[in-house]
Write a structure and sequence with these properties.
The complex is a heterodimer.
Chain A lengths: L3 E4 L2 E5 L4 E7 L3 E9 L5 E6 L3 E5 L2 E6 L4 E6 L8 E9 L5 E3 L3 E6 L1
Parallel strand pairs in A: 2-11
Antiparallel strand pairs in A: 1-3, 3-8, 4-5, 4-9, 6-7, 7-8, 9-10, 9-11
Chain B lengths: L4 E3 L2 E4 L5 E6 L6 E8 L3 E9 L2 E4 L8 E7 L2 E6 L8 E8 L8 E2 L3 E5 L1
Parallel strand pairs in B: 2-11
Antiparallel strand pairs in B: 1-3, 3-8, 4-5, 4-9, 5-6, 7-8, 9-10, 9-11
Chain lengths: 109, 114
C-alpha cells in the first residue's frame, strides 16, 4: 500500500535556527499537506502543496511531484514551533489519506 | 464558520462497555474521516465516508468499530465492546469533497479504557 516516510524522526534546534523536514511518498499524490500538532493538541493544516513551492509566514513547502517528495522549511525557529509535523498524502485515485509518522521538533530557547 | 466539532472531548470507559463518539463536519463538506491516533501506531484510518456512503472501513477495525453517517452533518463512531488497547485519541476530519481539498480536523476525543 501507500507509504509516506518522514525524516528526520526528531530534530532539536536552538531558537533562531532553520529546520528542513522531508517527506517521501510511494505513489502519485493529488494533494500533499503538512500539518502541525502541538503536544496533546489537534491537527492544524499548515500548507497544502501538491506541486511547486508555497510560502506562508516562516514556512516554505516545496513538492517535486515527479520525484514523489516534499519538504517543509521553517526559518528562524521559535520555541512555539515545538511539536509534531505530519506529512499527509492524498492518493490520486482513491482520495485516501496516508499519514507519515511525523517529525518531532523541539526548539530550545 | 464552525470547524469540525467532536464530543465528548474526554471519555473514560470500563472494559466491555459501549461508547459512542460524535462528530459534526464543517458545514457543506462531503467527505468525513475517522482516525485513531496512538504514540506507537501514529494515525490509523478507521472509516472514510463520501456523501454519506462508506468508502473505506479501515479493515482491521471492522470487528468492534462501527462508524455511521446518519446525515450529512453528523457522524458517530461506536466501539463495542471496548478494550484497554482502544485507549487513544479519536480524530474526525472533513473536507469539501474533491481530493485536492484541505482536510480539517476536529479537536479529538481522548478515550481511556480501564
Amino acid at each position: 500500500g501507500q507509504q509516506v516516510q518522514q525524516s528526520p524522526s526528531s530534530l532539536v534546534l536552538q531558537e533562531g535556527e532553520n529546520a528542513e523536514l522531508q517527506c517521501n511518498f510511494s505513489s502519485t499524490a493529488t494533494q500533499l499537506q503538512w500539518f502541525y500538532q502541538s503536544p496533546g493538541g489537534s491537527l492544524v493544516s499548515l500548507l497544502s502543496n501538491p506541486s511547486g513551492t508555497k510560502h506562508t509566514g516562516r514556512l516554505t513547502s516545496t513538492t517535486v511531484t515527479k520525484e514523489r517528495r516534499s519538504s517543509l522549511h521553517i526559518s528562524s525557529s521559535q520555541t512555539t514551533d515545538s511539536g509534531t509535523y505530519l506529512c499527509v498524502h492524498t492518493g490520486a485515485n482513491t482520495g485516501k489519506l496516508t499519514f507519515g509518522h511525523g517529525t518531532i521538533l523541539r526548539v530550545h530557547p | 464558520d464552525a470547524g469540525v466539532t467532536q464530543t465528548p472531548r474526554h471519555e473514560v470507559a470500563e472494559k466491555g462497555q459501549t461508547i459512542i463518539l460524535k462528530c459534526e463536519p464543517v458545514s457543506g463538506h462531503n467527505d468525513l474521516f475517522w482516525y485513531r491516533q496512538t504514540k506507537i501506531q501514529g494515525l490509523e484510518l478507521l472509516s472514510y465516508f463520501r456523501s454519506k456512503s462508506l468508502m473505506e472501513d479501515g479493515g482491521a477495525f471492522k470487528d468492534r468499530f462501527k462508524a455511521e453517517m446518519l446525515n450529512s452533518s453528523f457522524s458517530t463512531l461506536k466501539i463495542q465492546p471496548t478494550e484497554p488497547k482502544d485507549s487513544a485519541v479519536y480524530l474526525c476530519a472533513s473536507r469539501l469533497g474533491v481530493n485536492q481539498d484541505t482536510q480539517y480536523f476536529g479537536p479529538g476525543t481522548r478515550l481511556l479504557v480501564l
